[in-house]
Specification:
CATH superfamily of the largest domain in chain A: Type I PLP-dependent aspartate aminotransferase-like (Major domain)
CATH architecture of the largest domain in chain A: 3-Layer(aba) Sandwich
Oligomer: homodimer
Largest interface: A-B, 86 and 86 residues
Number of helices of chain A: 16
Radius of gyration of chain A: 24 Å
């Protein structure tokens, strides 16, 4: 077996597992480690390097996930075959679905600051409350929670969600209309089974790319509809032949546009003109609004059973909470019963019960209020720090959510902005990524700056680095 | 608001919530409670009846789930409109997907003994170990588990599953080939996205009806293939034009047939004759084999990357554990990466970690050994008690799984057997339910007797009641 000598720097910006990962990756790329060669076991390497075994495991996991090494049951870890590696490398450039494994690591290897729009702040999560609820729920006498629950989710939780949605988002529904599932992606899969195959759908452009990919994987014919400052242009929607529209009226991703009541009315009117039209309302991030009074959901204005409402606890509580909810119009509840009620629930009763208690005991409301304040602080701080950027940039998407948009006034391209930021060790995200067709039509580059997962200190340093890069 | 007077009998075979449920249901059916009428709150009714509030909640939940009453946020519970009720009642008879809510209750209202083939024994579940693992996993320093994990499932768990499957089922795979998901139903949904729409599939007949319903909801053209004592008849399979076959070679549900090596070879040969043919192996119940040496999976004999292997922890640990795994052939791993890698994981990292520790620390193996012994005891006891049934019945499906089949030697029909058992308060299940097309072609009635969820005492009493019914 191979021996690895890696010089580890403590106090480096890069943490230990990253150093191990990068060292081995380099050796493989340079051909110093040969294909098929066996790596030392995680235990042995950890001993040799005097680090925790979990550190080596993290490094190996990253290498595995990127295809540099492979594991063979009972034999250990081996350097992957080279052709395989090149193939993986080549694929990465164009592969739209490549992000998942990389995303598992909170910071990209080459960056010091990452303004990711998808990260949230977990530092204020009420870990001890969560532990206590776990303990209570798992205590004696609750054995029935180990049984499989209702396909739609346990009644108590659904009742609780109905109450919360009514109070906070104006959603009108009974618990019967709610389906609880393990994440939005799953609920959209289930929705496909309810609505049927091949349904022509319209989406905003730019839009939430993951939803786009999902509808694409359904084989739904997708038409994008351009937006103005009030959201999707309904007169454009009228020119195309679709039955289904996916919108984010409360806070559109990524533009941050809030759809005013007039446009909502137009959209609902369009939906009501034919019997089989529906609007999917993804109420993403609606919990976090910092200015003006909260805007009720589109579902709240719907008098004709046309809105399919989707929301999640993954963003408002923690990504590990794989619990989302879908509110079906009554007509579709019946279709669900007929066509899909045999699908088993994807959420354990134990997890449902913990969440149920978290809401019922008032912890959820308190947590939301705390997080709203926390994100508002970061949001205000961002805007303050960006004051001198205004001579070169138009700032939009403020007052809600977890990100801002900066558009160059000087026609600097998105690629250039990203590249200049990268040279300062800062990761920012191009608006083009959210465009179907891959490109923002405007010449002026727009980048997304997420602040949810960054501390105020990191925000300050990151913006300072961007100042060097762009101003 | 309405006042309800319900006479509750303690010491009755029916528990309190059932009595409340039945009383209210009867009143509604007889028109004594009028549509739109408001029911007392659960708190009030519980006070009046001097029972726990949760008892009333259970009764209301059952009424709600069956559509007799409705809940309105902030207003309370109301008797449903009558037309609605009749519609629900009428639908029930033919509705194939109706079972989910009823199944949430462990015993049907009208039965004393329920030989359900889907129940498992939770009395030996290591609750305290499970609690301890929860506590450890949620302890300080594990905050990263609250982040969203790898789309395929966390690497450690997948590695652990690969090791377990190799050791116990002969499955050959790397962790890269494994996808962890919230239940078999979800994994089949994901598989549809990998394989594509409209794929002609063959299934055994009789078969596992839920899988049939799922493929039907995909719009897959399904052809059934008859079985002989060795399982699916491959010469029949050759007469039809399908690309995909769903089989349960280790212990077919419901027949209990174990596919011998010869037939497996034929099936693998069929699959290998065309580039795009695959076999889905549902390795359902394979953990529980009581006689003869354990039979490796079909995947273990597959040299050509043709078997998609699916298994679950819901049955081997607890139904609340919504964790299943799918082992993809390498070719399909690539398709998954290309087409589906953006789908977020449906299982929380916390739950994955607990399961990971449960397996890693040896608890899973110990639990399986304990349960194998527990189920073997019940199985042997069943066979012993059924000795005198052999003059009238052929007993099959023994030596594995959690149920037996009894076929009448005297041409008594399935319906008659079920009806006679019902008169003695015993629920047994007709084999016809598992037949696509709804009927067993044979004249001789066959019923399924599941013993997983019953105590030995209940088994003894239940069989005694069946003796009265049938002999």
């Amino acid at each position: 077996m191979l021996e690895l000598t890696i010089e580890l720097k403590t106090g480096s910006a890069k943490c230990l597992y990253e150093q191990i990962y990068e060292h081995i990756r380099k050796e493989i790329k340079e051909g110093k480690l040969l294909q098929g060669e066996r790596l030392p076991s995680t235990r042995l390497l950890a001993e040799n390097l005097q680090v925790a075994r979990s550190t080596v495991e993290l490094a190996y996991e990253q290498l595995l996930s990127e295809g540099y090494i492979e594991s063979q049951p009972y034999r250990g870890y081996f350097v992957s075959k080279v052709e395989e590696l090149f193939r993986l490398e080549g694929k990465k450039e164009k592969d739209i679905g490549k992000t998942t494994l990389k995303e598992a690591f909170s910071t990209d290897v080459d960056y010091i600051y990452d303004f990711s729009p998808t990260q949230i702040d977990m530092s204020r999560f009420p870990f001890s409350v969560w532990r206590k609820l776990h303990k209570n729920v798992l205590s004696d006498g609750n054995e029935k929670l180990y049984a499989q629950g209702n396909a739609r989710g346990d009644y108590g939780l659904r009742e609780n969600i109905a109450r919360y949605l009514h109070a906070s988002r104006g959603v009108n529904c009974t618990p019967e209309q709610i389906i609880v599932g393990a994440g939005n992606d799953y609920l959209l899969m289930l929705l496909e089974k309810i609505l049927g195959p091949q349904i022509p759908i319209a989406m905003e452009n730019p839009t939430y790319k993951r939803a786009y990919q999902i509808f694409q994987s359904f084989g739904y014919p997708i038409t994008t509809v351009d937006m103005d400052e009030n959201g999707m242009r309904v007169e454009e929607l009228r020119k195309i032949d679709v039955r289904l529209v996916y919108v984010m009226p409360s806070h559109q991703y990524p533009t941050g546009v809030v759809m005013p009541i007039g446009r909502r009315g137009e959209l609902l009117k369009w939906a009501n003109e034919q019997a089989d039209r529906y609007l999917i309302e993804d109420d993403y991030d609606s919990e976090f609004r910092y200015k003006g009074k909260p805007i009720p959901s589109l579902q709240a204005s719907d008098k004709n059973d046309r809105v399919i409402y989707i929301g999640t606890f993954s963003k408002s509580i923690a990504p590990a909470i794989r619990v989302s909810y879908m509110v079906l119009p009554m007509k579709l509840v019946e279709t669900y019963e007929r066509k899909c009620a045999f699908y088993s629930t994807t959420v354990s009763r134990i997890e449902q019960k913990i969440l149920d208690e978290f809401i019922r005991e008032g912890y959820f409301e308190r947590h939301l209020n705390k997080m709203r304040k926390c994100y508002k602080d970061k949001h205000d701080y961002m805007l303050e720090l960006l004051e001198d950027f205004k001579k070169c940039f138009i700032i939009t998407g403020e007052n809600a959510g977890l990100h801002l948009l900066l558009t160059s006034k000087k026609n600097v391209s998105e690629e250039t902005l990203i590249e200049l930021a990268k040279l300062q060790g800062v990761k920012v995200y191009g608006l083009s990524e959210s465009y179907v067709g891959g490109r923002n039509k405007e010449n002026r580059g727009t980048v997304i700056l997420g602040y949810g997962g960054m501390s105020k200190q990191e925000i300050e340093e990151g913006i300072q680095a961007l100042r060097k890069a762009w101003l």
